Amino acid sequence: MNLFRTFLRRIKYNLTYLFGSRINIPSEFRLFERRKTNYEAFINKHCRFTSQNKVNLNDGFKIFGKQSDEYELSKDIFSNFNFANKKLKPAYFNVADVKVPYEASRLQYLQKVNSGKIDVNKFPLIYWNSPMDVAIRNINLIFHLLVIEDGSPGIEILGNNKDLLSAFISQHYEYISDNLEDQGNVVGNHYLIELTSLLLTIATFSFSNHEEEFKFYSEELQSELDKQFYNDGTNFEGSSHYSALVTEAMILCKLAIEDIDKGSTLLPRIDEIIKSNRLILSTLMNKGELSQIGDNDSGRIFYFAYDEDKPLNMEWLIILIDSLYEDSLEDNEVIEKFKDQIMLKAPSLNKYKKVTHKPIDVFSNDYETYSFKEFGIYVWRNENEYFSLRCGPIGQNGIGGHSHYDQLSIECFTDNKWIARDPGTGTYTDNIKLRNKFRSLEYHWGPKADIKFPYQDEFDCFRLNYMSDGKVLTYDKNNFLGYADFNGERIYRKIQIKNGTVTIEDFSKHLDLKEYISWGEENNGIKVQFSEGYKRIS
Predict the structure, then answer these.
(1) Cα–Cα distance list, 447 to 391, 393, 497 (Å)
(2) Given its phi and psi angles, is residue 237 left (phi above 0), alpha (psi -120 to 50 degrees) or beta?
(3) Is residue 46 over pLDDT 60?
(4) Measured torsion, CA atoms of residues 289, 295, 300, 305, in degrees rounded to the nearest 10
(5) Please, how many CA atoms are within 13 Å of residue 492, restricted to the half-sphere of its CB?
(6) What sign has the CA pseudo-torsion 456, 460, 461, 463?
(7) Which of 86, 216, 246, 281 is deepest in the core (most CB within 10 A)?
């Protein structure tokens, strides 16, 4: 029955696309005149590639860690499936990964390449299929224009003619504004990044109606900030790495808006978001690597410092934010709002089934606590020792989106090794079975029980239909108690920290819970499989 339902959904999806609108690349676009800007000084100073990061395009480049000799790319280099001239929309087919050519289409290597030539006439049609990826490409084209003006271009595109490049950017601007992803049940990071690209373009150029369009897109951004960020400034996607991505977008929004309107009422809120996310991102880092809470598609805007061989290392983003604020970053108000303790009435669990897991020796020194309750993660840590627990809202206001079945799941890093580690993402739509495995409770260090989850097809692969929001009842320096429902079965998890040792107990009224006799010390904290960034699967 489930397979037949999926079959009908596929037919509907494909027919909708076949009879829908086709990609329309603008042939007429406005004349852009270069503005004098201030933001470029920051970009030129802090976002130019170093000698260690230089790339020769003629030698190829890496996409999701895999080397490619082609840079006008219409295929998935992992499966060798070519999306060129395919009539059906490349999604939900489980044949190949459309994100691979999308990633190539962003031209991120413009931030690193020191030699080579790009022929825009060879761009395949799929390069215009995803408005968000077009938006990121537009950002990289603007960055490249700054390099040309600085007199040190490492790569040639459109002959590095500033007029031709400005016209190309104008074409991108028109395409993005005509294809905004601002509709649907959930509008997320795609629309936010599209707005970022448009605002950066307006900050860089003057053209007809740019004042009106700045006002409109600023108002749209204000609306999205209200929708996509919680009151504390953290992001609603339910993902640490998507939080990093949208923080990058906010940096560009700040720079662009300051150039156009220093008195904009948006700026204080953007500053709060950037500083709040700087704190949560740095708190979730160990040895410079950002934990993979929820999805990680390895998406970047500032690619100049990103290392394809070390995709989880995100220290460079913290450094970039610190460069943005210099001495004004230390904001006690930002820190204090994530230090709340929680003391709610807890039920008696005496009649519940209970399992006590193997204790974990974590802390040899004193530690701090952080309660990112709107994002849904609680952290106990010092410089070298780390323990966290996921418990809170499901991403995208309950839809799921980039969240996983990870409520009550822990991570632990101590003695320079992982004791328990989030598995990462694996992939998206090209292998739904694998995607659902990496999202599953089985792959995370949450409660251990035989819970049968219903079948989930590709149309549910960005939904969490069978898990509730997590609820925290107790949280302080030495204690935690919270619960979540998994396919209708409520499980409580209790944590006590005494003399640096963490003891974890799980409770259920009906389920037979199982004990963890090992937390993965012999397997680098990995429970089943691990994906070090998108498609980098061990």
Answers:
(1) 12, 18, 18
(2) alpha
(3) yes
(4) 10
(5) 20
(6) negative
(7) 246
Residue type at position 292: Q
Closest by CA position to 451, among listed 391, 511, 515, 517? 511
CA–CA separation, 308 and 294 (whole Å): 20
Cα–Cα distance list, 440 to 177, 236, 467 (Å): 37, 20, 11
Q: Which residues contact 515 (CB under 8 A, 6 or more apart)?
A: 355, 356, 357, 358, 448
Instruction: Judge whether residue 51 has pLDDT over 60.
Output: no
Residue 185 confidence class, pLDDT cut points 50, 70, 90: confident
Q: Residues for the chain: how many in total?
A: 538
Q: Is 442 helix (H, G, I), strand (E, B) or coil?
A: coil
Cα separation, 531 vs 424, in Å, equals: 5
> Whose CA is closest to 58, among 140, 100, 118?
118
pTM: 0.96
What pLDDT is recorded for position 324?
A: 94
C-beta neighbour count of 132 within 10 angstroms = 22
Segment 360-370, tens digit of pLDDT: 999 999 999 99
Distance CA 253, CA 192 (A): 10
Domains of the chain: 2-333 (1.50.10), 339-523 (no CATH)
pLDDT in tens, 462-508: 999 999 999 999 999 999 999 999 999 999 999 999 999 999 999 99
